[in-house]
């Protein structure tokens, strides 16, 4: 009866975990970059609106 190679299975499992972790990291960075770009547009528009409005005192 053939024995299973647990070292090989363990290494494959570790590689799979590492690959998934890297994919998650990349996805997270992509999501963080997208709203930041959109957020700056909103902030710039709000700043322009604030600059044109008369200050109330």
Can you characterise this structure?
The model has no long low-confidence stretch (mean pLDDT 79). It is rod-shaped and about 80 Å long. The chain contains 1 helix and no strands. The protein has 57 residues and is mostly helical.
Attribute tags:
57 residues, mainly alpha, 1 helix, 0% strand
Question: Can you describe this structure in just a few lines?
Answer:
The protein is an all-alpha fold and 57 residues long.
What's the helix count?
Answer: 1
- Rg value: 25 Å
Inertia-based shape: rod-shaped
Number of strands: 0
Binned, the helix content reads: over 70%
Q: Which regions contain 5 or more consecutive residues with pLDDT less than 50?
A: none
Give me the strand/helix succession.
H
Give me the secondary-structure category: mainly alpha
Instruction: Report the average pLDDT across residues.
Output: 79
Report, as a whole number of angstroms, the end-to-end distance: 89 Å
How much strand content do the residues show? under 5%
How is the main sheet built?
A: none
């Amino acid at each position: 009866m053939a024995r299973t190679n647990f070292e090989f299975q363990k290494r494959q499992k570790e590689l799979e975990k590492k690959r998934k972790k890297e994919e998650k990291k990349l996805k997270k960075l992509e999501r963080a970059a997208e709203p930041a770009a959109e957020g700056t547009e909103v902030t710039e528009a709000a700043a322009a609106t604030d600059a044109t409005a008369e200050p109330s005192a």
